[in-house]
Write a structure and sequence with these properties.
Layout: H1 69-85, E1 91-96, E2 102-108, H2 111-119, H3 127-135, E3 138-143, H4 147-161, E4 177-181, E5 189-192, E6 200-203, H5 209-223, H6 230-234, H7 241-244, H8 258-272, H9 276-292, H10 296-315, E7 326-334, E8 337-346, E9 349-356, H11 366-377, E10 386-389, H12 396-407, E11 412-414, H13 419-457, E12 466-474, E13 477-487, E14 490-491, E15 497-500, H14 511-531, E16 551-555, H15 558-571, E17 577-582, E18 593-595, H16 609-640, H17 650-660, H18 663-668, H19 671-675, H20 682-693
Parallel strand pairs: 7-10, 10-11, 12-16, 16-17
Antiparallel strand pairs: 1-2, 1-3, 4-5, 4-6, 7-8, 8-9, 12-13, 13-14, 13-15, 17-18
């Protein structure tokens, strides 16, 4: 989530431009995210911001052999016992197995009647229900005041407990919004995720961070609203680079007065509120007026702003004429899998779409999957006034009532049969079908590669979870470790983690010690619940973060492998397969050597798909850790400035700043440009350049 500045805004108005002041030189681009996490290990860090398509679920279990009568009898007996004590009022019930894992969460208007339907031995049940009954040893019941309350509680428990026999919405996260702040005289535009606690106007949801970023960039060009933090704003003595490139009106230094900036903010708010036609008409009128007055530069500014608004709307694709605010859900099933495509329409504008792949067994109908998906989707999101569905769900009125209670206004849930709303559903269905086709093709390839790992590395079974580790530092400084995760559906980016190396006695550049620290911090979280007898043991089908990997890959040779093996042995870890990938001569891709404990080194043919797969895993870990290291290094450089460069004293520092203006421009300069600064020799220029462009190890 983007950082919201907590600096107290001044009550005073804008500063006026100083008469006779010299033209402002380009300055640093204002920071739009001033917060940096101090500790990035799994205990405290969130996932990296990603907008990849949600993962495809695991393959559904096949019914297999008939359920043994003895186990069915035990399950029926447990349910019959629960029926005798069940209320006849609304509520939620949970079916548990012998290990107290929740198998299924359900809700009912009459709990006793619903449980009774499971208890009847002679009743014909789908294979999925028979397996669930056979695994049940106890039932827990929670009474609710209304059926609507039961529906909301059921959705919350399913998302929290991930029961095996329920439809599961996976990879769920909050959606980004655009926020125009209301706690400063010069409002700021920024993307926002999470609780909407900061004063201002929120516009969304948008389907992805990319869609928000593109929209904000275009809005800056169109309305010149600032995006910098309040602290950066208050510290300015001259406009920043965004003012120079006409993406900000410069309210920080009085380049625009208070009424003028307020008008720009009003126009931006009107556009995001759906009054885009009126805003474009106003800008067109101002452009014509400026042209008639022969103020061609001003007219060109209005022309550019109109072009930016047109760019926003052209990127949005389909925009409905009669639907002001709605979420559109369309489901497509193929090969036992389900894909739910969601489109967001607000203020008559299309704010993006996203594909979800809920986990559900083959026996679930599209209506059943969609109904369960819908309840979980809105568990932590505000619903719109209209929800359009591709399939009519059984309890649409109950769902509408529940969403209305959450929203505080009437919400309609409908399945359109004609008109523009039906066209929106058809468009969403096409996207759902295409998204599922792409995902199925990707998964088939991934499955073959995982099977190839089994053959090549001698693994006991295809790994469901692969964790890859790498470190990065420059001569021991800004040391950071990283973990990336991959599985049957590709990279699982919302489970990537970064680790700031924090051991005080660590020798700078000691890769073995850094790797030991990372692995100890990672696996300590998995070992602790077991040692304490925690009931929340990971299940084979659990895809949450506290899950054991089947294969751990590290970047390095035999030495790194032995260090990791010793670390695992000291922690009592024996069930995880280890693989070290050593780079080829001259770091030549395709000539890597693979090391595993107790085996001879292995070299694969350069064109072997399994080798390519391992390279891709290693390169992804390297990309992620390098990016993490650079963020830390840039933060240090911003804080330390030029003081840390060897041989650069106050005089040269002053000369560099006078010549380039800002630290950012010094960082961008070539060796030749640095050498032109008075007092900076060729050797000093080389040192300065290498300081900013050093490659992490």
């Amino acid at each position: 989530m983007d950082h919201d500045s907590t600096d107290s805004p001044e009550a005073s108005g804008p500063r006026k431009a100083r008469p006779g002041s010299e033209p402002a030189r380009p300055a640093d681009v204002p920071p739009q995210d001033a917060a940096a996490a101090a500790d990035l290990d799994p205990a405290t860090a969130g996932a990296e911001e990603v907008d990849d398509e949600a993962r495809l679920p695991d393959l559904p279990e096949e019914p297999g052999e008939a359920v043994p009568e003895a186990r069915l009898a035990v399950g029926h007996a447990a349910i019959e016992h629960a029926v005798r004590h069940a209320p006849t009022s609304p509520g939620v019930y949970r079916m548990l197995n012998a290990a107290s894992d929740v198998l299924y969460v359900g809700k009912a208007k009459n709990v006793r009647k619903r449980l009774g339907s499971y208890a009847r031995i002679t009743a014909a049940q789908p294979a999925r229900i028979m397996r669930m009954i056979a695994a049940t040893v106890s039932v827990e019941i929670i009474s609710t005041s209304t059926e609507t309350e039961a529906l909301l509680l059921e959705a919350n428990l399913i998302k929290q407990l991930r029961p095996r026999f329920n439809v599961q919405l996976r990879d769920d996260k909050s959606f980004p919004y655009i926020l125009i702040t209301g706690d400063h005289w010069a409002p700021q535009i920024l993307k926002h995720r999470g609780a909407q606690s900061r004063p201002g106007r929120y516009f969304g949801p948008f389907a992805s961070v990319g869609a928000v970023n593109r929209t904000i960039t275009a809005l800056q060009r169109a309305f010149l609203v600032r995006s910098c933090t309040d602290a950066f704003f208050e510290s300015r003595t001259r406009p920043c680079l965004l003012y120079q490139i006409r993406r900000c009106s410069g309210p920080c230094t009085g380049e625009v007065d208070f009424p003028g900036y307020t008008e720009l903010v009003r126009e931006a708010t009107d556009f995001l509120s759906g009054r885009s036609r009126l805003v474009k008409q106003e800008l067109a009128g101002e452009m014509e007026k400026a042209s008639a007055d022969l103020a061609f530069e001003t007219a060109a500014l209005y022309r550019d702003r109109l072009a930016a608004l047109s760019a926003i709307q052209s990127q949005q694709g389909i925009n409905p004429r009669t639907v002001e605010e709605a979420d559109v859900f369309a489901i497509h099933q193929e090969g036992g899998y389900s894909c739910v495509e969601v489109f967001f329409f607000r203020t008559g504008q299309n704010w993006g779409n996203r594909a979800y792949f809920p986990r559900a067994e083959k026996s679930f109908t599209p209506e059943e999957v969609l109904a369960s998906f819908l309840a979980q989707f809105y568990d932590d999101k505000p619903p719109p006034k209209l929800v359009l569905l591709s399939h009519a769900i059984e309890e649409s009125e109950l769902m509408a009532n529940a969403l209305s209670i959450k929203a505080g206004f009437k919400v309609e849930v409908s399945t359109p049969r004609r008109g523009e709303k039906k066209e929106l559903i058809a468009h969403a269905l096409t996207n759902a079908r295409e998204a599922l086709g792409r995902k199925l093709a990707d998964t088939a390839t991934q499955g073959r590669l995982l099977a190839g790992l089994v053959t090549t590395l001698g693994l006991p079974h295809p790994p469901k979870r692969i964790e890859v580790y790498d470190n990065s530092h420059i001569q021991g400084t800004n040391a950071v470790g990283a973990m990336i995760v991959a599985g049957p559906d590709g990279f699982i980016k919302n489970q990537y983690r970064k680790f700031n190396i924090r051991s005080e006695g660590l020798t700078p550049g000691d890769d073995y010690a850094m790797m030991r620290e990372v692995l100890q911090r990672r696996f300590k979280r998995l070992l602790t619940p077991t040692a304490e007898g925690d009931a929340a043991k990971s299940r084979p089908d659990d895809d949450s973060f506290p899950q054991w990997p089947d294969l751990v890959i590290i970047d390095g040779g035999r030495g790194q492998l032995n260090a990791v093996r010793e670390t695992f042995e000291a922690m009592g870890l024996t069930q995880v397969s280890l693989l070290a990938v050593a780079k080829g001569p001259d770091r030549d891709a395709g000539r890597e050597t693979l090391f595993m404990p107790g085996r001879e080194a292995l070299k694969l043919e350069p064109r072997d798909p399994v080798l390519y797969f391992i390279q891709r895993l290693r390169d992804e870990a390297h990309r992620f850790v390098i990016g993490s290291h650079r963020k830390l290094r840039k933060k240090d450089i911003r804080e330390a400035g030029l003081q840390e460069i060897p041989g650069i004293g106050p005089t040269r520092k002053r000369a560099l700043l006078h010549h380039f203006g800002t630290l950012k421009e010094i960082e961008r300069a070539s060796i030749a440009d640095l050498g032109k600064v008075p007092g900076v020799s060729a050797e000093s220029a080389r040192k300065i350049f290498e300081f900013f462009h050093a490659q992490p190890g």
